Amino acid sequence: MTKKRKHQEDFQKVKLKVGKKKPKLENATDTTFKTKAIQIPEQLREDGVLPTQNRKLNIKDLLSQMHHYSPGVKHNALLGLKDLLSQYPFVIDAHLSNIISEVAAVFTDKDSGVRGAAVHLLQFLASKIRAEQIAPFFPLVSAHLSSAMTHISEGIQEDSLKVLDVLLEAYPALLTDRSIILLKNFVELISHQQLSKRLKSREKLSWMLSVNPNRRVTSQQWRLNVLTRLKKFLQAVVDGSSETEDEGLQEQKDSPHSVRNPICISWKVHANNQQHIQLFENGGLRPKINSSFRLRSLASVMDSAEKGLSSAENLKGFIEIIIPLLIECWIEASPAQSAPILGNLLESESQQLMQQVLSIIHLLWKLTKRHDETYKMELWLRMNYLVDFKHYFMRHFPYSLQETVKHKKKDSCKGNKYCMTSSNSVDHLLLNLTLCDIMVSLASTATLQMDSGWLDMIRKFVTDTLQDGSKLNSKQVNRLLGVTWRLMQIQQNKVATEPLIKAVYTLYQQRNLLFPVRTLLLKFFSRVYQKEDMRTQRIRSRSKVLSRWLAGLPQQLALLGLKNPELSNQLIDIIHSAASRSNKELLQSLQATAARIYDPLEGALVLLPAEAQRRLVQLVYFLPCLPASLLACLSRCCIMGRMSSDLAATLIGILHMRSSFAGWKCQVQDNSVNDVDYFSFLFSTLIG
């Protein structure tokens, strides 16, 4: 075979015939495959262990969806969690750790809808979870909150304030334990550090207010939102302190190292040697048993960051940062930035911002008083901030609220779109009172000459407000009386204190006062009287207004009767206190009103409860004179059964002590009970 023929045999061309299939290639791939259905009955069966919600998802399914990339899936998971936990509350205790960690993680989610659903779920959980339950997981919640407050996104920062509101409402004590970190976050929300070359050499970097045009609200409104939360946070810190004090009129505090235990003495039991009185144990000199203290090792390990605002250094450092920022906020909202014709009138938003500024400063001032070195702190505050406060705060004092009202075309304010009028409401009063509280706390008797200018402004404002205070509520009256008391302590001469007492008495004489307001006024006058009575006889100068107030108390008690038992008890306590001090004006008034108080039909003695009756019977001992008519009234009260038998026996014992048969070696009172009247009372009562 030739070579050419052999080559043709190797590469023969296959001829295809019509109607027949094309033969498969030797290297062709088989693409055929077979499928079979797989059925898993267990997957379609409902879980009998974990409860499910309406979408047949249990707690594990919902929590796993929290990690999904889709915002819609996470939003539905949060809604499903709220639905499931509201139907089955016991699931919260079983999966508390996972629920808290997953919900806190979405505080910084990019989607606003997811963050809003997380806030609503957190608010629901706060009503179901106690503080001791969430305490082990609260550091994680606080860390996520701090991350949200310092986030670069404006929307996340705004929603972090909503989370803060929920936690402040439900767990204030747990939140204030991390005060140092959160306070720094508050500062960073409204300001930034100055990093100029001139300031790099300083040890402490200063802060300045920041402006972000990308926010949905104005810079002033954003600062108002942040400062409102800061004020709530500081209020929680103040309330959580061991030494709680109310605003305004303060009562005298005992030594923190002693506690007083009131003791009830029954003279009958004591006379029979059946009751022993331990004066040392009940005299206020015994140290507190439940005093809080730390071992030296623990106290030395604790650093200043853990102490929070309870440390004087931390408090001073925060004050140095926040006060300049607050002054800048005040300057932006102050009337000086408005039109000159407005004077000291404020718009509503400016008034709210200025109120928050003063409230924060007032709370910081209260925190400074909690330290042992109180005088040093007050001196430090005065040296650093009094000049700025006088220049900015007292410049337009007192402030009033400005009303912006739209008028029709036909109006007296022609050509003006808005007509500015001074508000008749008392909304602006809280601003002025807070400012008075702050400024008066910086003054003292030693600095009276230097501060006389702005103190006179505050004294005039307080006097005018008290004289026209018919519409004041109890909170405003409490703050007013607190400022009044402080002014009286700074300048204790009669020329300065008498107009203030007269202004308070003018308010006291008004009718239809609320019961809390009347109570506050009574406490104020009682405290002023006790303070005046503690002075020595040489420097004592009786206030005419105070004497007039004391003289009117018995008549008020006779008129009040059973209309307000609580107020009657307060009047009786004050009358008893003044009578035991032999106040001449009160004893004369009590003598004149005794027949009405001890009337057997409509007198206060027979109308009031048993405890008040006992105090009224004790007042009989202090009456200057016991005439036959009064003894007859008392006898009828005993005969008619309007008093208990024990109280009647007490009355007989008091009258016996006032009679000549008591065996006094010296004459105690000038007008003792007439013997004939005394025997007449005894026989009339015994026969009855």
Automatic annotation (TrEMBL):
Q: Name one GO cellular component term.
A: nucleolus
Q: What is the species of this protein?
A: Nycticryphes semicollaris
Domain Pre-rRNA-processing protein Ipi1 N-terminal residues, every copy: 132-234
- Look up keyword Amino-acid biosynthesis and say if it applies: no
Query: What protein family is recorded?
Result: Belongs to the IPI1/TEX10 family.
Its domain of life?
Eukaryota
Taxonomic lineage is: Eukaryota, Metazoa, Chordata, Craniata, Vertebrata
- What keywords are assigned to this protein? Nucleus
**Where is it localised?**
Nucleus, Nucleolus; Nucleus, Nucleoplasm
Where would I find the TEX10-like TPR repeats domain in this sequence? Answer: 545-688
Protein name, please? TEX10 protein
